[in-house]
Amino acid sequence: MTANAIIVIADDHPLMRDALRQTIAQDLSDAVFHEASSLAEAEASIRSFGEPDLVLLDLHMPGMRGFTGLAYLRSLFPQTPIAMISASTDSLIMRRAIDFGAAGFIPKSAPTDDIRTAVREILAGNSWLPANVSDVPETAAKDAQLAARLATLTPQQLRVLAMLSDGKLNKQIAYDLGISEATVKSHVSAVLQKLNVNSRTQAVILAGRLNVEDPARSASI
Predict the structure, then answer these.
(1) Same-domain check for residues 28 and 90
(2) Distance CA 215, CA 218 (A)
(3) Main-chain dihedrals φ then ψ at residue 57, nearest 5 degrees
């Protein structure tokens, strides 16, 4: 285990960030924590630490778009272990998180001892899933293929894919990213080729499979 571990806690709920920090600090008193409330803040925090020892990443905070945020951070920081944290306890979602590059999946409802164990295991270079998940199902072949294709996209190509999913035109994407429309077209072409699709619409449909329903939001409806 890394001495004086640097841990980024990325969650849009301050109380959850505080609870996770206190729980982990009881086990790792020398750990250094940094908090983020969005995907953009998480990225900035990781950069500021020169790649921390662990990132705890909320599946449903602003900017995440389900597993798109995980894929994006993995493309930027492939050596940084990222564990998903979520209110979800769905075994299939846990399996998909691992497929898309997560080092672990920690339900927010997990006992404090389990959270500490998960952090220790991941810092030691292992993966972690809840012990009560006795038979995590394999994802469908199409999801495994999607995970492999996403891994070939560059961070900028993932940004473009996310903006395509928002329905933005090349001109709007170029403005948002500060690049030329010709460069956007080049990125779109690369995205289509790497995802093995023939149109922007097909790419958006494929990207839609990365979305994960927020159980907290569903419960409030």
Answers:
(1) yes
(2) 5
(3) -115, 120
Per-residue confidence of the chain (221 residues) as pLDDT tens digits?
Answer: 556 899 999 999 999 999 999 999 999 989 999 999 999 999 999 998 877 999 999 998 998 888 888 988 998 898 999 999 999 888 888 888 888 889 999 999 999 999 999 999 999 999 999 876 655 556 556 667 787 888 888 989 988 998 898 889 999 999 999 999 999 999 999 999 998 899 999 888 888 877 765 545 444 33
For residue 114, give the amino acid letter: D
Residues 85, 11 contacting (CB under 8 angstroms): yes
The reply to whether 149 and 76 lie within a common domain is no
Residue that the structure tokens 């999913």 belong to: 165
Residues 107 and 167 in one domain: no
Give the chain's end-to-end CA distance (angstroms, integer): 43
Query: Which residues lie closer than 8 Å to 4 by C-beta, 6 or more apart?
Result: 30, 31, 32
Q: Which residues pair with 160 in a beta bridge?
A: none
